[in-house]
Amino acid sequence: MARPYIFFTLLAFIVSALAASPPSFCKCTCFANSTIIPLSTHSSTTGNTPRAAGTTCNTCNKAFCLAQHLPICKNAEEKDVFTACFQRDSRKDQIVVLTFIGVTIGLLGWAAVRKAMERRKGEGVRIAGTQEGYERLGGRR
Asked: Which is it for strands 24-30 and 52-53: parallel, antiparallel or unpaired?
């Protein structure tokens, strides 16, 4: 009997660990071109994508974008740079949405299977106006 409680408690811990912090991004726009820089807690370079070390949305400003030495910002001054910081949905939000979609599809599927089973048994097909299955309660009239 305690197994479902243990399962749901473990699931709650996993969801809270995954939902700890949603990923943040800094959008740097120089002239008419823009680049999105992932903000994370560790410094690395994935391919040609620069990654800022331990930054938050507070550090996403014009000086930050210019300090990244982006090719699109070559010869750009602070007046040519525009910034925007945004966060992608957290894992918790994704789990809630996917669970809702899964439950909805499951319920619709169950309703369709149940309807098909009723039709197969002959219970689901009735002609309107018939009183099949009803018995008279009172005496003769």
From this structure: unpaired
How far CA 28 is from CA of 57, 87, 107, in Å, comes to 12, 14, 45
Three-state DSSP class for residue 29: strand
CB neighbours of residue 94 within 10 Å = 14
Question: For 73-93, how does the pLDDT look when each residue is reduced to its tens digit (9 = 90+)?
Answer: 888 888 999 999 988 777 778
Contacts of 70 (CB under 8 A, 6+ apart): 28, 30, 35, 50
Write 112-117 long-range contacts (CB < 8 A, 24+): none
Cα distance between residue 35 and residue 81, in whole Å: 11
Overall pTM > 0.85: no
Number of helices (H), then strands (E), in the chain: 3, 6
